[in-house]
């Protein structure tokens, strides 16, 4: 063993390599992305790693490998589990042969997500065992246990780190190369009675799953990951994940100050719930405060245990409104909850006050081609009744003023269906659906098929910047290379659209503003389903061109360049419009907007 200072996601990835993982598949999504990237970077070439087209495909690839005896990992964020849920629900009934860990990173806050859904609740719903680490070190250690449990019970297993676990750093004892497990799968063995899901098999396996989960509840009650720390009063706190880590820090400080402290129940394997351990804990206290993220999962199970075993304890938490029902359990909030619960003076465990940070709303980068695309559509449709259905990605930021070009955003690929639905209610509305190139492959193709088949009248705008920009520039089917470093034929979006039956498909450079505006006007007026592919590379990935500057002799301070596009590279300096050369990458969009021709390329000295 040796020590390394690792991010939580890096620790998980390194643990998977050391555990002998054979196949890794996933779809990028913050806060999970670095797990797969770490495995791709750090393994010796023996591990197959892929960014799949979406989470459903990733889980099915991993299932096939697990059927063959391989140890597999699937990575995604919590909303990705919705996409993967179809195969997962059936896979739990069929089971696996090789160990299979489904890593789902939850996002309390939410910091970068559409939802605050809790994978622990999904684990109970799907009957899949779940591990819930409290820090990077525990996440590293849990991976080995998760693979072993999966193989012991022939079941997929959830690993549920949250954002603060995924992105925190810790010094961790990691295995040396000589300690790595060498897992060699035997290959797929035909057995239709095992691998082909029929109602009779499902019925029989359902009974086995329920029996197994009962046994796992007992096993988890004696698992060292779940623990009870004795207190000095007949009060207790139950916690999990990063909330447990914060609670423990506060109680450790209180002990040093000579305060009376409550007992502490740690739940690291929330499903199947360790009922026997929880029961013993509650028999030792009269009142319990539950601090957890996100659902009142532990709280509900403690109430069930009280009813099942006849334990009389007062339980408070989210269900009673004692703890906030949404958002992160920030350390200062946890300190207040504990102070109120224990009757301490709030100031006695208050955390140091940090300076208030300035508000920095997210914006499209300077030179982002999506800004130019949105602006071209906005100009072309000025004065017409329109709807701009957005999607998940950098381009969601097109909703911000002054662009104001995202009227709806639901989930990946949904903009196509929403645009069709609006058009059915009010046919005179010009309906647009915006989608990125990565999202097009992940979840938008079926929406186009639906539109063509049902003869919708809408315009699809594909914002093609040749990468998966929002999550860190991962490859996708249109980039021409894979996560294994192999070059492959680019899958052509235009050919897909024409193959589906979209007859009008136009490629357009969004930075040629006048031309782009005319293209939108022309295409939008055609009947049926039509598409414009705005092609320009992500501004982050390419070397900037010569920056632009403002000629103050021509500028009349109309500020149209600022009001129209909101580029962070165009600023006010000493009361006058200026271009920040540190941000400008020379896209030239502002110069095309300026009515005085006062913005041009900077003259090199």
TL;DR?
This protein has 605 residues and is an alpha/beta fold. Helix content is 38%, strand content 17%.
Descriptive terms for the model:
Rossmann fold; 5-stranded mixed β-sheet; 4 domains; single chain; alpha/beta
Descriptive report:
- This protein is of the alpha/beta class and 605 residues long.
- 38% of the residues lie in helices and 17% in strands.
- It contains 20 helices and 22 strands.
- The longest helix has 23 residues, at 199-221.
- The mean pLDDT is 92.
Strand order of the largest sheet: 3-2-4-5-7-6
Using the 3D structure, state the CATH architecture of the largest domain: 3-Layer(aba) Sandwich
The total beta strand count reads 22
Question: Unreliable runs, pLDDT <50, ≥5 residues?
Answer: none
Stated plainly, the CATH topology of the largest domain is called Rossmann fold
**Which of globular, elongated, flat, extended, rod-shaped describes the shape?**
globular
Oligomeric state as shown:
single chain
Helix content: 25-40%
Largest sheet: 6 strands, parallel
CATH superfamily of the largest domain: Thiamin diphosphate (ThDP)-binding fold, Pyr/PP domains
| Overall average residue pLDDT | 92
Radius of gyration: 27 Å
Q: Which range does the strand content fall in?
A: 15-25%
How many separate domains make up the residues? 4
At the first level of CATH, what is the class of the largest domain?
Alpha Beta
Number of helices: 20
Distance between the termini: 57 Å
Q: What structural class do you assign from the helix and strand content?
A: alpha/beta
């Amino acid at each position: 063993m040796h020590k390394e200072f690792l991010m939580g996601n890096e620790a998980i990835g390194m643990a998977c390599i050391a555990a002998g993982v054979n196949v890794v598949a996933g779809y990028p999504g913050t806060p999970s992305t670095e797990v797969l990237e770490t495995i791709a970077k750090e393994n010796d070439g023996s591990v197959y790693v892929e960014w799949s087209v979406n989470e459903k495909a990733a889980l099915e690839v991993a299932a096939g490998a697990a059927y063959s005896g391989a140890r597999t990992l699937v990575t995604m964020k919590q909303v990705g589990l919705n996409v993967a849920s179809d195969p997962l629900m059936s896979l739990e009934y069929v089971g696996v042969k090789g160990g299979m860990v489904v890593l789902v990173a939850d996002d309390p806050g939410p910091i970068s997500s559409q939802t605050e859904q809790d994978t622990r609740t999904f684990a109970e719903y799907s009957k899949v065992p779940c591990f819930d680490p409290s820090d990077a070190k525990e996440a590293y250690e849990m991976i080995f246990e998760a693979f072993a449990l999966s193989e012991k019970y022939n079941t997929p297993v959830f690993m549920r780190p949250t954002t603060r676990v995924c992105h925190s750093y810790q010094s961790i004892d990691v295995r040396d190369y000589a300690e790595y497990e060498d897992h060699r799968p035997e290959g797929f063995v035909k057995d239709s009675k095992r691998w082909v899901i029929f109602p009779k098999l499902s019925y029989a396996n359902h009974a086995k799953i329920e029996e197994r989960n009962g046994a796992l509840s007992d096993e988890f009650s004696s698992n060292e990951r779940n623990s009870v720390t004795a207190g000095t009063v007949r009060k207790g706190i139950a916690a999990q994940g990063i909330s447990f880590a914060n609670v423990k820090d506060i109680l450790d400080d209180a002990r040093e100050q000579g305060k009376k402290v409550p007992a502490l129940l740690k739940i690291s394997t929330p499903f199947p719930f360790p009922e026997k351990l929880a029961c013993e804990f509650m028999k030792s206290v009269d009142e319990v405060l539950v601090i957890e993220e996100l659902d009142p999962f532990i709280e509900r199970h403690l109430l069930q245990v009280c009813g099942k075993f006849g334990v009389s304890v007062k339980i408070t938490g989210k269900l009673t409104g004692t703890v906030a029902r949404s958002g992160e359990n920030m350390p200062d909030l946890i300190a207040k909850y504990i102070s109120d619960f224990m009757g301490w003076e709030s100031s006695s465990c208050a955390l140091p006050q940090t300076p208030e940070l300035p508000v920095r709303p997210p914006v499209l980068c300077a030179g982002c081609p999506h800004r130019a695309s949105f602006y071209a559509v906005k100009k072309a449709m000025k004065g017409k009744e329109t709807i701009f259905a957005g999607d998940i990605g950098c381009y969601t930021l097109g909703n911000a003023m002054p662009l104001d070009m995202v009227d709806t955003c639901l989930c990946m690929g949904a903009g196509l269906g929403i645009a069709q639905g609006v058009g059915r209610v009010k046919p005179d509305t010009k309906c647009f659906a915006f989608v990125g190139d990565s999202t097009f492959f992940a979840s938008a193709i079926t929406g186009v098929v639906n539109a063509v088949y049902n003869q919708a009248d809408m315009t699809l705008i594909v914002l093609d910047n040749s990468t998966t920009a929002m999550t860190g520039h991962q490859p996708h089917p249109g980039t021409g290379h894979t996560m294994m470093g192999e070059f492959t034929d680019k899958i052509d979006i235009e050919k897909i659209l024409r193959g589906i039956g979209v007859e009008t498909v136009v490629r357009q450079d969004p930075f040629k503003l006048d031309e782009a505006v005319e293209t939108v006007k022309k295409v939008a007026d055609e009947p049926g389903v039509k598409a414009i592919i705005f092609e320009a590379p992500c501004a982050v990935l390419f070397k900037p061109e010569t920056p632009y500057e403002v000629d103050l002799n021509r500028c009349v301070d109309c500020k149209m360049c600022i009001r129209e596009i909101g580029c962070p590279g165009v600023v006010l300096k000493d009361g006058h419009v200026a271009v920040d050369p540190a941000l400008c990458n020379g896209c030239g969009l502002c110069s095309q907007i300026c009515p005085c021709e006062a913005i041009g390329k900077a003259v090199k000295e």
